[in-house]
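Format notes (please read before filing issues)

Several people have asked whether sequences and structure tokens are stored in separate files. They are not. Every record keeps both together, in the order shown below: the sequence lines, then the token lines. Line labels are part of the format and must not be stripped during preprocessing.
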Amino acid sequence: MSSQDNTTKELTAEELAAIERKYDPELAFRPTGKFIGLLITTILVAMSAYHFYAAGFGLIREVLHRGIHLSFVLGLVFLLFSWKKSESTELQKAAWYQIGGVSILDLVCSLATVGAALYLPLLPAEVLADRVGNPSEFDVLMGSILLVLTLEATRRSVGPTLPIIALIFIAFALFGPYAPGALKHGGTSWLGLVNHLYLTNQGIYGIAIGVMAQYVFLFILFGVLATRIGLGQLFIDLAMVVAGRFSGGPAKVAIFSSAFMGTISGSSIANTVTTGALTIPAMKKVGYPPHFSGAVEATSSTGGQITPPILGAAAFIMVEYLEIPLRDILAAALFPALLHYFGIFIMVHLEAKKLGLRGLRAEELPKAALVIKQHWLSLIPLAILVYFILAGRTPDFAAVYGIIACIVVGFLNPVNRLTFGDLWQSLSVGAKNTLAVGAAAATVGIVVGVVTLTGVGFRLGYVVVQTATDIGDMLGSIWPLSYFTIEQWALFVSLILIAIACIIMGAGIPTTATYIILVAVAAPALAQLNVQPLVSHFFVFYYGVLADITPPVALAAYAAAGIAGANPFKTGNTAFRLGIAKALVPFVFVYSPALLLVADGFTWEAFFTTLTGAMLGIASLGIAFTGYLFAPMGSLQRWWFALVSFLFIAPGLITMAIGLVLLAPLVIMQVQQRKTTLTE
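Then the structure lines:
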């Protein structure tokens, strides 16, 4: 289908699944024979049952729980992901070296990772304490096996970028004496490296895999079950009711439905395919170009990772790192997420007015009363989950009761009734969806372990700050840039450097992995510049998410382009333009942390000033990018709106007032131009 084709061909479920597998390596599972497939499904269901039991009723040692989780993840990765991506498209012909589509080598690797992952946690606590710092030869062997197979499992399930980064860090640890400048350190031996990464809780068994085992698995399972009982459909239908009738309605439906879906799913690509199957053809039908239709859906869907209460896995990592309640993290995330969707809405609305697009007709919209009557029961699990989080209960406690509520509602709801077969499948799919992020978490543990072993985080932070200070010193010598101090320039340039690093790092590895790695560098750098820890964590997280819609590796945008039949790169560029608010908001809350609600120094005056300024700035930038307010704009007017938008984004009543004064003549000109057009 041509990129200029505005037809509304409906894609089948198989075609949508193929698009999702193509652009999301985490879902590129290989087909298997019937017996092996049943065995794998049984193990996946057992994995879900174990995590549910461990969170709700079990009392399991922390290191053992992490080891069991890791053994499930890595063992299943070798069964479900092929050596080459091309082998994941169809069942391979029977051969002596494979059983049911799985090679004997993969079976051996699967068993080896299970053994290596469980060997250490099964040791008695007193024996393990004696081994730390003095590992036996067998300890080193098992640790080496786990390190190598963890990297291979991550390469298969996530892609090569993250394992390559881990290998660079391992080389840095081993060859530290040869590192340049401030990065030089004493180095370590292979035995010392394995001891730190395998026998302590600073490496593979560290915070990343612990959060996956304790929290993330349960929330992913909750999202799968909630979608199965009809909550996802309810969100899409409600979005249609709320926004469908307005100008360019389908695009606004995409925004609202993706925002709603973000409350139960933290996956950009999954959100894109789920809601895009409906919204993208509808957008094309009313007149949006294919690339713009795909871009709207992709940009809206990436908001799922920054929308409470799920926030992908990053929220739970922040809970562990910052040692603050989950409800505080969710409160801090609320208004930045709303600003993201506000920015998309402004540009979508102006684009619709510019193109003269209609909304959906009454016969094309669902009936609100019928939607609520059919699906209201599916809201109960989400309400229970949010209630327990706001009540201060632990995230795993809230997730367990949310899952129980999903099952009860599913069995009772006559519209989306859950059968035992459906429950079995949901438990299997939920576990399967955690495998890639679990393998990535183990590899991130390797990277973080090297950081703690060598102290490279503080060294890199020093390099970033020193580089930014040197650039600031140079800029500060130029008039009128000399109006700002060197310290102010150092902070601004540091933020730019860290933002670029986050986007580059995120172009090929999961957001959570990007977040954990960059926090190790960004947090020390920003701490030296007196940025609050909560603010620095959110800054890194937001730019990691932005990579999903930033070419050249904008996976969510490419998936949307596949549904829209549009040029992928053009869709990615448009998605980045639509998501520009997500690029600006982090700078807003660095300079005015009040936007995060729970940051130190919060006042309502600062909050409302910052929020109002951010909304005006995002709206001005949206007008500049669209080239339309009440009438088409020339390039000079667009540049003027773009430049003035930065006055709004810089928090303060004075800068806001100056911005309004500077824009007032252009707004009056637009109104007059609109009147002239209507009278002609």
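For reference, the curators noted about this record: DSSP finds 30 helices and two strands in the chain. Confidence is low (pLDDT under 50) at residues 1-8.
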